[in-house]
Amino acid sequence: MAQLNCPPCTPCASVCIEHQPIQTETSVDNPFHKPRETTAADIKDYQKELLTSPVGLPASDPPPYLPQRAGNSDGYPLAKPMGPIGPWATGRVDWGALSGQTGTRPVVNQYSITRYSVDEWRQRNADMINACETTVDHSIQVENASKNTIIRTYAIADKTQTDCTQSLHVRAKNIDDLKCELDRAISSMQEEIAALERQRRRLKQSLAVLRMPEAIANECLERRTGRPDTELIRDRPEEELIQEISLISEIKAILLQTLANIEQQQSDNRAVRQRMEFDWSEKKVAHENDAVNCNLRNQSTNTLFKPGATRCSNEQSTEIYWEKFTRETLDMYHNCRHKSEQLRNTLDAILTNAARDLRTQADSVERALASRISCMEEIREKLEIDLRTVLQHLADTEIQIDKLKVAIRNMDYAMMVVQTRLDNRNQRPRVENCRDQPQNLLIAEVKSLEVGSSAMNAQLKQEEDVKQELVNRRNELEREIMLKRRTIAIDRDRCQLLRSHFPSSTALSGY
């Protein structure tokens, strides 16, 4: 389509431009233009261009303040260098800012101070516009880059803050988990300390109760030393009592050693609990600190600049050591609690076995005492029976002695009769005094009476000796019965009475 050659200064320029069709350039007219079809959008753009164009030229023609097509520069260069105005303007060559670079030599005379040509002015306008466009484009690029940088920076900051918040949540959860584990461990250790304290009180109660059987056994031995001389024998009750005292001494030594171990273990338990409480309190502070940090936002009002907050102090620990410290504390708790439980179980076994052994030995002592008392009762009864027999025989002997004495006295009467007869016969006169048969019989009678008297006197002597022996036996039996009764009184009325207060197995176990 041909261009209209309407000069830009005519009054009909705007009308012609309004009614002329949109011009399209070819690659010959403008090598940088790519031909295309006219569309409704092009028409709207062209009408907008008419409103903004100061000269009303088509979009394909440059404005008059820009380099024109007649030039030979890169875009629209200068047509020719500026020369003299005319012969009337002699002029003189003056220095210009562009001299030596643009090839211009300003012409100056007495009427003009012109230094640049119109083409240079248009080129400068084009340079200014291009520089402005370049600056605007650079400004737009910088603005877009700034916007992108802001968006990217805020996105990175938000992501970093979200990651840090998530990391703080994870860290707070880890701290809370360990804090809860420490809390459970502290509660468990407190229960263990209370249980071990109950066992310690039970042990001390058992030691206090153990004084009673020890005192009873010693009292029984001391009382049995008061037996009479002939009853001071090493019998089975004495052996059992000595064995009981030895058993009590061994149990007492074991209980005292166990009490020392319990007190040491209790001290270790309290030390471990104190360490866990310190760790728990520090984790509580750390958890509260991280909980506050997790809730901080950009809109929070309690945030401030903290210069030097990124500095790490020399006292800070590593995360590995942090977890290792808590795990070591928990391992110490587990080991200490295991030892405490073993000690409690050992104490239970010791107290149970001690109570069983003491009760078994006490039963042995009581059986030995009962057997000994029964034996003493039997011998006492036997001795009493023998005493009654001796007393009966002593009475019979005394009666027999009396009978013998009466018989001996009665023999005197017969002796007197026969002796009187013999004396009377000896008074016979001479031949009549013969040894006749009556004389021989009387002499034989005297001899017989003397033999009978001698026999009865000998028998009397035997009876008196037997009586003395019976008296001695009676004294000995009475003394033995008295000794047996005293021994029975010591074993039954004192020892068995004391043994009746012997503590039970439950009391010996510390309950």
Automatic annotation (TrEMBL):
GO cellular component labels: axoneme; microtubule cytoskeleton; nucleus
Primary localisation category: cytoplasm
GO terms classed as biological process: cilium assembly; cilium movement involved in cell motility
Top-level taxon of origin: Eukaryota
Compartment(s) where it occurs, according to its Swiss-Prot or TrEMBL record: Cytoplasm, Cytoskeleton, Cilium axoneme
InterPro entries: Tektin-like (IPR048256), Tektins (IPR000435)
Keywords for the protein's UniProt record, in alphabetical order: Cell projection, Cilium, Coiled coil, Cytoplasm, Flagellum
Pfam families assigned to the protein according to its UniProt record, in alphabetical order: Tektin
Entry similarity comment: Belongs to the tektin family.
Name by which UniProt lists this protein: Tektin
Organism, as annotated: Anopheles arabiensis
